Amino acid sequence: QVQLVESGGGSVQAGESLRLSCVASGYTRNTHCMAWFRQAPGEEREGVAYLDSAGDSRYADSVKGRFTISEDNLQKTLYLQMDSLKPEDSAMYFCAADRRASSCFYRRVDFDYWGQGTQVTVSS
Questions:
Q1: Burial code of 62-86, b = ≥16 C-beta within 10 A, e = fewer?
Q2: Which of 22, 86, 95, 120 is the most buried (most CB within 10 A)?
Q3: pLDDT of amino acid 101
């Protein structure tokens, strides 16, 4: 089992930045794809950024050039740096981990492990 705990959400103005963190614990050796998802009220969960164990990253078109996914392996922490935030970025953000490396390549949404989420609100 893998446990994921997110932090770093908050309320900001458009154009500002936030950095989300996700600390992983438990048996993390078999997770080969980490990702950030978001879900706004009444909408489907969306994959925002993916990072595989080889260090390759993928992003949703809506956040390319503004968001950066990274990790600190020693601290078992996944980050999402979010710059130039827009009101449409407002959502609950979730950290997720999957045992399949292909989940990053194919940008799957059916991940094995999920955090509880952290709220991001961007006002105009």
A1: ebeeebbbebeeeeebbbbebeebe
A2: 95
A3: 87
